[in-house]
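Amino acid chain:
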Amino acid sequence: MKQQNEQIRTELQEEIRLLREQLERVKTDSNKLHSVHGEDKTRRDEVYWPVLGDVWLRPKGEVARYISKYRFGRCSYFSFHEWKLEFTCIRIGTFRFVAECGKSCSITATKLGDYSFRFNSPRPTISQVEFYR
């Protein structure tokens, strides 16, 4: 039992160390982003987010600095809109999502957490995400 507890303690300490390193990288990356772009704090990231239904996904690339997860699917049968994008933001700012057809939607996140929007589009796959501070 004592050996098990020691192993669990060691594993937790390692996990804490890794989380602290990750937090430091995020802080460093955030500082680099703001200093490199000066007054223009806009980030434009090319993405490929097709409609996948009721599946939460983690974004890849630079956009993962601003959005921790997203879900993109059809709206309910009784909705005026056909598509719904939900996401969890981890940065406060304005997000602009651009579909393949060129339509876009902007949402200003005033707090960290979950946001969503609905829209109609003949080609709904999200091809670009922009972030403004």
